[in-house]
Write a structure and sequence with these properties.
CATH architecture of one domain: Orthogonal Bundle
Distance between the termini: 91 Å
Strand order of the largest sheet: 1-3-2
Strand content: under 5%
Radius of gyration: 27 Å
Low-confidence stretches: none
Order of helices and strands: HHEHHEEHHHHHHHHHHHHHHHHH
CATH superfamily of one domain: Winged helix-like DNA-binding domain superfamily/Winged helix DNA-binding domain
Helix content: over 70%
Oligomer: single chain
Largest sheet: 3 strands, antiparallel
Number of helices: 21
Structural class: mainly alpha
Length: 432
């Protein structure tokens, strides 16, 4: 087989031989047409011609759509090692890395259009236009290539291109969270933490600690989340990024609330609010995210009216901004506040709003809303309606992995329903 490949390689003209060798430098087992163009440094028409000629010579395989591969990558790498210098091979790999970084950044603009971005790739010009138009198309495209993007990040690390490697965490974040691919997110962020540190980029390190903290909180590791967000605040202050420092205060406040320390959260959140209001230009979205946490902390410390005001204004802001997920989250917060004050009719009203705005893809949040519904119904002795919501929660739990939050919420709800059933049975027993 090697002899046959050597013969086919020798039959290629020198330009196609060089193209074959360069494709061997691409990270991962598959190559997109765009990556091939970057690797070969030719235009799209020339790229298609080169790939087609190599396919006819049985030197590359075409897997449909935009996916190519080398049937014998070891042979291609051997040819590259013999004919090209290490500097040439590294430069070729770097072009592939840059392509995948720019490509994921272009799709990130669709998967998470409202968030603040830190990676330098988002400001590179000319910008690489997205290959698709909608958020769902972007998610589908990324799902097919995320493994190659991860391989590109690893290749950047291997070549000590740490200033590129950490940026993949920023360009992949929206997809990984929407897809709930927490294992890949954890891996990408760990690599990015190392790379940002090795790059000596204080601002980058602050950003990656922020993402690591958000991921840890999603997994319920609140102490770990707080450590990451503390690092974010310190590094942001050190680098002079007061906007990121304000955002870190919001995250720190949320961590402290989850850890049962609302009074400490109040101090941190008020500091963050002051930072937002000291900015030369308003950052309403970030301020409203912080005010959501401030409203929760105020409510937990007995300042219900003030807490309700912050939550209500944040809810109105995100409704006006057309962000249904955050509108739903804040409506749930208002429901929790009403239930704590035994205003159960108001709590159910807010839950109706929350479920109406909850996107179909936000399964953890939808599961929590069903749990809140059921527990609120139990408090007003509407047991059958609580069971209906329990059944809906069970349907979500049946469709997700065992470590999904829906399973924990379902177990807790089952315990509450069983306790209610046993209490009713005891009450029905005649007195001795």
């Amino acid at each position: 087989m090697t002899s046959a490949r050597n013969t086919r390689y020798a039959d290629l003209d020198s330009t196609l031989q060089k193209s074959y060798r360069r494709l061997a430098c691409s990270p991962g087992p598959y190559i997109s047409t765009g990556a091939a163009a970057a690797i070969l440094q030719v235009n799209p028409k020339q790229t298609e011609a080169a790939l087609t000629a190599l396919r006819r010579a049985h030197m590359v395989d075409h897997h449909g759509e935009d996916r190519w591969s080398l049937p014998a990558p070891e042979h291609a790498r051997q040819m590259a090692d013999e004919a090209d210098t290490p500097a040439d091979r590294e430069a070729t790999t770097a072009r592939a890395i840059m392509h995948y970084l720019r490509w994921t950044a272009s799709l990130e603009m669709l998967t998470a259009p409202t968030r603040r971005r830190y990676a330098a790739v988002f400001a590179w010009t000319p910008a690489l236009p997205p290959a698709v138009e909608s958020e769902q198309e972007a998610l589908t495209a990324l799902s097919a290539w995320v493994d190659i993007a991860v391989a590109a990040q690893a290749a950047a690390t291997a070549q000590a291109l740490h200033h590129l490697a950490w940026q993949f965490a920023d360009t992949l974040w929206g997809y990984l969270i929407r897809a709930q691919d927490h294992a890949t997110a954890h891996h990408v962020i760990q690599v990015a933490l190392d790379s940002a540190g090795l790059a000596g980029d204080c601002g980058a390190l602050a950003r990656i600690h922020s993402l690591a903290g958000a991921l840890a909180r999603r997994a319920g590791r609140h102490d770990e989340a707080r450590d990451h967000h503390d690092n974010t605040a310190h590094l942001a202050h050190q680098s002079g990024d007061t906007l990121l420092e304000a955002s870190a205060a919001e995250q720190q406040g949320a961590d402290l609330i989850e850890l049962g320390q609302p009074h400490q959260a109040l101090k941190v959140l008020r500091h963050g609010l002051a930072l937002y209001r000291a900015q030369p230009e308003p950052h309403e979205r970030g301020e409203m995210l912080l005010r959501r946490q401030l409203g929760k902390a105020l409510s937990l410390t007995g300042h219900h009216d003030q807490g309700h005001q912050h939550l209500a204004e944040a809810a109105q802001f995100f409704a006006d901004a057309g962000e249904p997920y955050l509108s739903s989250r804040i409506a749930a917060n208002l429901a929790e506040l009403a239930a704590d004050q035994e205003r159960y009719a108001d709590a159910l009203h807010h839950l109706d709003s929350a479920i109406a705005h909850c996107p179909d893809t936000a399964l953890p949040h939808r599961a929590y809303l069903l749990y809140l519904y059921a527990t609120t119904y139990l408090k007003v002795d509407r047991v059958e309606e609580a069971r209906t919501r329990r059944d809906e929660l069970a349907q979500i739990a049946a469709a997700v992995p065992r470590d999904h939050a829906a399973h924990r919420l379902l177990r807790e709800l089952e315990d509450e329903l069983l306790e209610r059933q046993q209490s009713r049975a005891a009450d029905a027993q005649p007195s001795p």
